[in-house]
Give the backbone structure.
Amino acid sequence: MELRVRIDPTTLSRLGLLVTAMLHAASAACPQVLAQEPAQRPADQPIAEGVPHIDVGLGGYAKVGHFCPVRWRLPSPLQNEIAVVELECVDGDGVVVIYEVEVSRTGQGASSDRAVIRIGRAGGTVTGRFLSEEGKILASQEVDAQAVQWLPADQPLVAAIGDSMGLEELVRSNTSSGTTTFTTVTLDRVEQLPTSWRGYAACDCLVLSIRDTDLLREISPQQWRAIDDYIRRGGSCIASMGEQIDDLNSNPHYAVLRSLIPGQPIATGEIRAPGLLESLVSTDQPLESFPAVVLAQPRGKVEMTLVNHLSRPTPWWIRFAHGHGTVQFIASDLGRGAIARWKDRKLLWKLLADPYLDLESNPGQTDATAAGTSNYLGYSDLVGQLRASLDQFAGVRVVTFGQVTLILLLVLVAIGPLDYYLSVRWLRRPDFSWYFSGALLVGTSLGLTALYRQIRPDELRINTVQIVDVDATSGRTDGRIWSHVYSGRAHLVDASAVHRHGTPVRLDWQGLPGTGLGGLDSSLTTEHGMPPYSIRLSGARSSIQRAGISAAGTKSMAGTWIGHTELAGHSELQELAGVDQVSGTLVNPFDCDIRDAVLFYHNWFYRLNSRIPAGGSLSIGLDNIPKDISRKLNDRRSFEQSELAVRWDPSDRDSIDRLIELMMFHQAASGTNYTSLQHRYEMQLDFSNLLSTDRAILVGQLDRPEVKLQVESRDRPSLEAIQELDRVYCRLVIPVAQPASKSGRR
């Protein structure tokens, strides 16, 4: 085994100010290879007379380290000349990154005016440059950082489309820390709505006010698709509808909107006895009568049924799955009429929003806990533990703080007591101490230098984890990839993610939430002196160009994609009446085996065969006894006629399988109370809310990667890139037929 030396993040965080001094010293002697391509443009390029305008953020809010929508408006003379837009900001390490956006064109000029980027520092400068086909800068504009409301990477965010309907009444603030439980942004103009799901990726939840308004009529098909894709990828939505829309059922423009309503609206009734709702929220404040939409054949789980003025049951609160996400539908307008005047409306909102926003937590206490964890580990979020795990490369020996201390102590012993014994006590030549100490220090330095030059690897090393989510009903696939690239020497690299079926993959830098070393909320630049690099965006595809990796350092990357999988067969599962368990036939629809398969349904999990062959099937019946989901997620074990939960170790870097499992179902595993870490940076990975619907989730591993990361050194194109870890996890979301006893509530 080859020996390679590198210092892990925990050791770095303990070094503190020493690391800062080393980084600043390194900037004065930046590796020559990293300075070969400065990637900077002349400052004296002519600027066009017209001044473009750039809007950053979702409704003026930008969440650090998350996808952030950017929109630009150009003066008329420039619209026919712009070919490329460059958006310059900094990444999570404080290194300048330039997003190069190809502008699609029509006969009327530039047709694209939006992009989605990531900004790695709050208050960071965003500069836009508008280039011609020849690369000439036609105009440039710097965004005023004060015009953007910057949010921490772990701040819960809700986007309300049309009207927030009083959700902001739930916001609680901590005066000492200046933090709030969550932030609400209201998007009431059509130009504020993103045209890509990535524009909503920073949101924990969408709130949709379904009214017969100009906003709904003006939303473009691309904007509707962005909303739909966000929810189907694992997002959440609370939809409120209190009136019928005349052409809702016939207008193709409302196709996505119809899919977010769990049935066809056929009438509007009056709820005159809302006592059940008053009891649910535990209030003594009376609620006046209010209108409610009547749906024909509603689907999903009916959480509450009210009786209208015709004494007919009206499904009023319905929860249902939408792709890999969930929708809660309320058949009344929460922002108008009696409900809007109701003093305890916020209690209803608390029931609706708590699964997504964790409203029980204290904002100040949460921040303090996260800060303490971050100071000790270097991270306070599960994605930080994933990054630390991916930073472990086979054959790379980590030099710990204790080992560094031991080396220093041995040198001190050698030039102290040992030198005294040899020079004074044994040889009786005190003047010899000068020669001995000098030779020892020079020899030690030369030896360490020679050892380092010998053991640092020539090739690049790659660790990768992928999660592939597939909807068994439609074949829709949502994928995510996280990769760490290690280099023993300083290199400039190009990277791209290639899907095996040619599906476009968006590759970007990966952030680390928190205030730890290299964190998005840290003021310390960990890659001081690194040259700028670029990310080229072409539709849904992107690649990284000229990214600098320091000697014995890593570069963290993350990718996302949406595709379609041809399924070879479909599972047929149904719920057993009265026992809340499933039976039927489970099919592996993929063209490769599924290993270590586990089936989750509501509060149960089923251990299946260790390997389900491609296209294979198995039966699930009464003889398949499920176990409580907490035994799996909380690692509960029997001990002396009792059960104990094995506490999750947030410093563990060798249990990626368990870590990914907790990221998939963090809330179902009791969340931060169990893991001692937050799960806010990749919150849409958590399918816990999907377990409360009529969906079963098959989880396993695939032997074949969906996406391959290709990395090439700029200065040495022939340099080999070795793939070490390449773990692929899959989740197949399967509909479960409900028993007849529930058909009236569906």
